[in-house]
Each structure stands twice: as C-alpha cells, then as structure tokens.
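Chain X:
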Amino acid sequence: MPQKTNGYKDAYSRIWWDKPSPTITTKFYQYCSGRHGYPEQDRALSLREGALLQTFPEDYMFFGNMASIARQIGNAVPPLMNKEIVKNCILTFL
C-alpha cells in the first residue's frame, strides 16, 4: 500500500525578498507550477521578473509567445554565471 503524504510542500508558495530565489523553471510564470509566487501579491512572477532573477539585463529582448519566452528564460544559464564560467575558463588556459 502506498505511503500517505502530506502533499507537495513547495507548490503555491512565494519567493522571499531576503532569501535566494528557487530555481527558475520554464513555467515560473504560472502560479500553480511551483514556488514562484510574487512576495506580496497573489500572482506569479512576470516574464521580466523571471528574467531579472536570471540576471538578464533589463533591456534584453526576448522573442516569441509567452510560453516560448518563459522557456528561454527558464532553460538559460544565468548570464552573470555564464560570464564567470567563461572568465575562469580563459584564466585556466592562460
């Protein structure tokens, strides 16, 4: 017989202003798809808010429909992380 659970502890929760964000997934813009609720409002994060959490510049342009843009953001290596990886690779080969 399956073991009884108390439900999913990370569904429908909010991010915190003063704690690290959870991983940004491809469906972060849907409130029912994880822990991506806005800290003070009853809504999910916007596409732009997700992009900013991923460290995309404010003026970065995404193309496609909402789901396509969310997938681009959720599947991306955060730009600032990528910058550090490249910098370390270059230093390794010098």
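Chain Y:
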Amino acid sequence: MITARHWIDALGLEAHVEGGYFRRTYQADHRPRTRTPGGDRYAVTSIHYLLTHWSPVGHWHLNRSDILHFHHHGEPITYHLLHPDGRHSTAVLGQDPDAGQLLTVAVPGGTWKASHLTAGDHALISEAVVPGFDYADLTLGRPHELVARFPEHAALIHRYCRPDRPDQPLPR
C-alpha cells in the first residue's frame, strides 16, 4: 500500500508554509521571463503537493498567478474559494467524476484558497502556476484580515486559517 510517508520520501517533499508538503518540479528556464507588477517571473512553474492525515489542511492563502491543480493519487481534496466579489465556492479534486469530483481544478489569481484532505491517509496532486510562482506573490491568510473582508464567511475562515498571532510573523 502506498502511503503519505512513501510519497514524501520518494519525491523528496518538504513541509510547506501553507500546510502539507511540496517540491518544485519545473520552472521554464528556457523561456523569457514574464513581466508582472511584482517583477519578472518564470512563464510557468510546477510543484508536487501532498496533504496527509497529520497535515490535512492547506491554509487560506492568495496567489497572484493562476493555478491549475491536478489529482494524482489518494483521496479527494476539497477546495474552498473566496472570490474577489465575496462569493464562496467549492470544488472537490479527486478521481471519481461520478461523485462530482474533478481531475483538474483551476483557481484564478487573486482568489483566496483553502483546501483539506476529505478523508484517508493522503492526497497527491501537482500544480502548474502561470506566471510562475514566487513567494513575493503569496499572501498567507490572517483571520482578522479575512473576516474583515469577508464577514459572512467568518466560520469558514477560522476553520481553515492559521491561528492569528500578531506577535509572531507568518512563516515564509
């Protein structure tokens, strides 16, 4: 049986600031950089990303780039999206289209995202980021800031947000 620990070891995954584990698998070194308001970025980057039963949550965060998520192995992941206009939507990334699961979930840049392992030991996915990911383009959610912006979603925000510790900076 393939387990979360197997994927961490086999793929050389490391703990991710959002929760779960990751490793960058690609960056478009052979293409010209893409100019963005935050600076020049790779045209595209990709990672492997793993949620586990001991690290089941991808905490609220916002990326400025568009991200495509692809399910590879394990259980489904439920995504919660808070759109710039305040709407909340969900999508389930998994292997069972008859149960409404999607093999690919697209999240537009500027959309707040949290995810959680729906059940089981793990879920292994990959992500393609366009323009490529840079930590300067990542905002980690703080409960008080997100609730001020989306008060109607306060319970959901608190459920998937890292604890708000103003005395401690968010990890990078």
